[in-house]
Design a protein that fits this description.
Order of helices and strands: HHH
Largest sheet: none
Structural class: mainly alpha
Helix content: 55-70%
Radius of gyration: 13 Å
Strand content: under 5%
């Protein structure tokens, strides 16, 4: 399976990952977004990734 890369550029206005998620959903293929946005088993890694990303903001 191959995915087309995006060449979209421009400022992204968001406050946290929850604001960013709907924007990402518009440009990422449905199957890929479902895989990325869901957490496996206990969702530990997903929670830690969100925590780390928000810490950088």
């Amino acid at each position: 399976m191959s995915y087309k890369t995006s060449n979209a550029e421009g400022p992204v206005d968001f406050i946290n990952t929850y604001d960013l998620e709907p924007m990402a959903q518009q440009v990422i293929p449905k199957a890929a977004f479902g895989y990325i946005a869901s957490g496996a088993e206990d969702t530990f890694t997903l929670r830690e990734n969100i925590r780390a990303f928000n810490h950088k903001l």
